[in-house]
Specification:
Blueprint: E1 2-3, H1 6-28, E2 33-39, H2 43-58, E3 62-68, H3 74-85, E4 92-95, H4 105-111, H5 123-131, H6 139-151, E5 159-163, H7 170-179, E6 183-187, H8 194-199, E7 203-206, E8 224-227, E9 231-233, E10 236-238, H9 243-247, E11 252-253, H10 260-280
Bound molecules: guanine.
Guanine binds near residues 96 and 97.
């Protein structure tokens, strides 16, 4: 079984991006800039944002974090986004989710200029991705996609089963694999026989938020299994895949942690650089 090392893949990607940033700096005399807005004091969000900032600095991006208390008014956040939209030194804007209840997530997402939407959440980017046009692609599915391609460069005709239909993961993952000529099945909580669906798969992407849902006997030999889950349990952090069981059957599997997570952040940096390049084309 191939243990897919997301930490190593992310470090390699960051190295490539660092070279790219050096080249852009030489060409344009400026570097791509990423601004993250963090609202409230949720610990996981703070950790993610700190890691994003650290990685951005490592590859030579200009990075900035703007923090607001939980009580911040929606209007203040929207005005800040407008200001960042107009700021030429800002290539990418990310508002860390989840947001406090009184702030309308969709309004926030739609206020970010599509050309600076490094999350790929803006409806314009969602539409472009599903139509097969150039767009920002959400970081987590992009990271999964790059890991799958490392194991199997030619995905044409493969059967992929996505467990979970979220806008964040399942749906964009589907689009990326369709573009690679996979036959894609999206499954979810109302799917009749999840095990039977998974047993058909050459590729499984589990992104549903249920601890160790995908079992060893759901996976045939030669299946590539990507685990997007990060679930807190009594036994610590576990994925959506029963790792020990599945590792006995699968061709390749991502661990949790150290699989998809590091790639998500590296892909955010990649998206920031892509936004910069599109702006300067
Ligand atoms: N919170 C958890 N994952 C994400 C993500 O990919 N983007 C944003 N903006 N917030 C998140």
């Amino acid at each position: 079984m191939i243990l897919i090392d997301g930490k190593k893949a992310a470090a390699e990607l960051r190295q490539e991006l660092k070279h790219e940033v050096t080249g852009l700096k030489a060409k344009y005399n400026k570097v791509p800039g990423l601004t993250v807005i963090l609202i409230g004091d949720l610990t996981p969000s703070q950790i993610y944002v700190r890691n994003k900032e650290k990685s951005a600095n490592e590859v030579g991006l200009k990075s900035e974090v703007i923090k607001y208390p939980d009580s911040v008014e929606e209007k203040t956040v929207l005005e800040k986004i407008e200001q960042l939209n107009a700021d030429e030194t800002v290539s990418g804007i990310l508002v860390q989710l989840p947001l406090p209840k009184h702030i309308d997530k969709q309004k926030v997402i739609e206020t970010i200029l599509p050309s600076k939407d490094v999350d790929g959440f803006h409806p314009m980017n969602v539409g472009n991705l599903s139509s097969g046009y150039e767009s920002s692609v959400p970081c987590t599915p992009l990271g999964c996609y790059l890991l799958i391609k490392k194991v199997e460069p030619n995905l044409s005709g493969k059967k992929a089963v996505i467990v979970g239909r979220s806008n964040l993961n399942g749906k964009p993952m589907t689009q990326l694999l369709l573009k690679e000529n996979c036959t894609v099945t999206i499954t979810h909580s109302k799917t009749k026989d999840l095990k039977a669906e998974c047993l058909e798969a050459d590729i499984i992407v589990a992104a549903v938020g249920i601890p160790e849902l995908v079992k060893g006997d759901w996976v045939k030999k030669d299946t590539i299994v990507i685990d997007v889950g990060i679930n807190k349990t009594e036994n610590g952090i576990v994925g959506d895949v029963a790792f020990d069981e599945v590792s006995k059957n699968a061709k390749a599997l991502t661990p949790v942690p150290g699989g998809v997570g590091p790639m998500t952040i590296a892909c955010l940096l990649k998206n920031t650089i892509e936004c910069f390049k599109r702006l300067h084309k």
